[in-house]
Amino acid sequence: MGVSKLIKMLENHSAHHSDLSFGEVTSKIKNSLMPIFDFLKKMDKFRNKFNQNINEYFKENLLALLIMSKESGKVLYSHISDELIDPDLIGGFLTAIQDFGNELFSKESPIKELCYKDFKIKIEDGKYTRVVMVLLDNPNELFKKSISEKMRDFLFSFELIYRNKLQKWNGRIDGFDDVDSLLQEFFFA
Question: Which strands form 62-69's sheet, in the order they lie side by side?
Fold first, then answer.
């Protein structure tokens, strides 16, 4: 039922029932809905604060983010916070592990997470690409879920924006230059 129909119905009701005026009815509805609106405002503030905390976590703990071709393992884009890290070495290592797992189990079984010393490597697969995060700290369970969701959302947006290029990908990694703004939007805003 549309709002205008509801108002018309209330006006008709108040015209036929003089015990409550239209103003009194709308006031009662407003008063009954206020706790819901207050709750939604609090939830929105909580969500915003949580997202700020996640983004702070990324600023402090994201060592590397790679976007790789699922087919070839080639790194299409990398955001590295330490110059000593070679994104192609990480990409080759992860591709080798993935291929080993697929060979061992005779089917594609994507790896989602690896731990090495103090590092946590999170992996999400899309249709054409794989996003990899190397984190300095092991996130808590609530952050893990949020990080995975952000990675999937980022990957979905990346593949949507670059769909034509990815479908006809010829092995060249140029043309993914403006990924920085997308990265900023999803992980550092």
Answer: 75-80, 62-69, 129-135, 119-125, 113-116
| Per-residue pLDDT of the chain in tens (189 residues, 90 and over written 9) | 566 666 666 666 656 655 666 677 677 777 777 888 778 888 878 777 777 777 777 777 888 889 998 888 889 888 887 777 888 888 888 888 888 887 887 777 778 888 888 788 889 999 999 999 888 877 767 677 788 888 899 999 999 998 888 888 887 777 777 888 888 888 776
Number of domains observed in the structure of the chain: 2
Shared-domain flag, residues 121 and 135: yes
Whether 23 and 66 map to the same domain: the answer is no
- Write down the residue that tokens 């949507």 correspond to: 160
Write out the residue range of the structural domain in which residue 97 sits.
61-188
**Type and span of the H or E element at 80:** strand 75-80
Q: d(Cα 119, Cα 65) in Å, to the nearest integer?
A: 13
